[in-house]
Amino acid sequence: MKNKNAAVMVFTLIAAAVFFAPGLSRAQYQGRLEGVVTDATGAPLAKVTVIVASVKSASMNYTLTTDSQGKFSQVGITPGYYQITFKKEGFQPKSSEIHVRIADVTRVGATLEKGGEALEKALSDADRLLLKGNKLAEENRYEEAIEAFKEAIALSSFNWGYHFNLGLAYKKINKLEEATAAFQKAVELNPESYSSNKELAEALAKADKFEEAAGHYQKAVDVSPEDPDAYYNLGACLINVGRTDEAQAAFSKAVELKPDYIDAYYQIGTIAIGQNKIPEAVAALEKFLSLAPDHEKAPVAKQLLEYLKK
User: Fold this and answer.
1) Single pTM value for the model
2) What is the pLDDT at residue 119?
């Protein structure tokens, strides 16, 4: 039996949402960040500026300073992905991406290398341009933000975060080719960045480059294996290139992480039909209908179930 529905795949990119369970205190749905900064010899570095900025919102950021033991901490951080930057006079700054999880402690370590004054000034100017670009982006002035990010990159081309923010700005004005190039550079500079891989995958999928997109979604779920949306979109890419068994595994992982993932159940059901796994198809489609009886695909799901149960 061939699955006609699986051949026409609607690629759905689902916005991340934070769900707060009833009765939880504020501290229970926020995270904590702590870490230590040292020099190349392992000695703790005091008075290091630690900037923690959300990859989603420029208004959500924290500026910390290490103590005499090189330690820093921050409580009450909204769960999500952040770019963390370490800066101290006389040292080269360092930047990476971290994932702050709900009701958990994220621990970070950093080692700073000695740097020259000229490099420090260029990087300081670049940081100011990044902040300017982020502010412009928050005001929906994306063209101006793009120019600010480009200037920052001209001063510090090896900072993955500048390229990532440039890509986000291009994405906002639907310049897909430019956004893709910026995200590709961000991934090149920081291959372990979940956000950069996810955004690059999304851009590639929009350009119907599903095979490439699947590779970056796979990297995203490797880095962040608890994200159901990344698994769903991985499955969407895989099914578009005919890798249905792998797609089924990705959709199944999505519902494992998010038991009420409506669209994933529909995909699981339609793929199972193509695999001639009738009990699995019936179970998935019935679950889909129980969760979303008024879904636009509900009439098709009902027709499929009627046929499968004959």
Assistant:
1) 0.75
2) 55
